[in-house]
Amino acid sequence: MNIQTTGIHHITAFARSPQENVDFYAGILGLRLVKKTINFDAPEVYHLYFGDEHGSPGTIITFFPSSGSRRGKVGGGQVGITTYVVPPGALGFWEERLKAFGISQTRTTRFGEDYVHFRDNEGLWIELVEREAGENSTWSFGGIPADKAIKGFGGAVLYSVDAKQTMRVLEDVLGLSKVGEDEFYARFQASGEIGNIIDVPLKDMEWGSGGAGTVHHIAWRAKDFDEHEQWQQKVGDSGYQPTQIIDRQYFNAIYFREKGGILFEIATDPPGFARDEEASALGEKLMLPSWFEPVRSQIEANLEPIEVRELEEGTKS
Q: What span, in angstroms and rounded, lies between the C-alpha atoms of 34 and 137?
């Protein structure tokens, strides 16, 4: 079955404080809160989505923030590093901005590219890289000009407990191409312009543990609902055990765990985040699926209030 993903659809992680989560990703990184909803399986927990102005596939990081959650340990069976891409010439701006907010950072190099490497307020590893590919952001917030703003994902670094198996699924199932290898990493590329570069450490990693500051899963793009059904069949035919197709309101999803321990999702590009809110008002109201509307007041009473706010430099999220 000759289908290939164009790259990352979204990445979903755990956090603790909902307001600190909003402060970091909207207030410091300048992403747009495009959807405020709940974990459909645990309605006492927010599900927050941050991305570009439209919440485009390839730009979306989502969180389940819960103040009582435990700390996780980054390790095998997870996305180890989430990579964001910024326009050429923007890394210096970001180094200064992160420094102004008291965020420690380092410069690293991989496959001839420079990265600014840092952790979010919960300990999740993030890096920024400059690339030409991908449209510049049209969303400007918190003093970040559009020509310096994050475009979306550059890709990710996958921490696998069985690197050969993870690399095999990237090529043989998802259809990425191996484009490089050095002493420490193998690099794979999908056909999309963003969210398309995946690096895998050659050395198998020790298992991590889930919790705040770790990634729960990485989702790959399916262009439409028909292709999504083909993906379900292809994943099953490849020896994995995909779930049934699940309606996540803003995309349909299937899940499977690859043999390196990482939970993979395949998500549809449609219908998108404007299906239940005006594009100009994304993320402003708590959106609930129809079956939770009768208990909206109880759900809202159990959620901590949050707001998107501009932060003064020197503020630590």
A: 14
Q: Model confidence over 212-263: pLDDT tens digits?
A: 999 999 999 999 999 999 999 999 999 999 999 999 999 999 999 999 999 9
- For residues 43 and 45, give the distance between their C-alpha atoms in angstroms, rounded to a whole number: 5
Which structural domains are found in the chain, ordered by start? 8-301 (3.10.180.10)
Q: Is the pTM of this model over 0.90?
A: yes
Q: Which residues have CB under 8 Å from 187's CB, separation 6+?
A: 111, 178, 179, 180, 181, 197, 198, 199
How confident is the model over 77-89, as pLDDT tens digits?
A: 999 999 999 999 9
Per DSSP, the three-state class of 26 is helix
Full strand arrangement of the beta sheet holding 263-271: 32-39, 42-51, 60-65, 8-15, 215-222, 263-271, 251-257, 246-247
Give the closest residue to 268 by CA, choosing from 241, 246, 239: 246
Nearest of 44, 48, 39 to residue 11 by alpha carbon? 48
Q: Which of 82, 123, 59, 32 is nearest to 217 (CA)?
A: 82
Q: Where are the alpha helices (DSSP H) in 101-175?
A: 163-172
C-beta atoms surrounding 166 within 10 Å: 26
Q: Helix (H) and strand (E) counts for the chain?
A: 5, 16
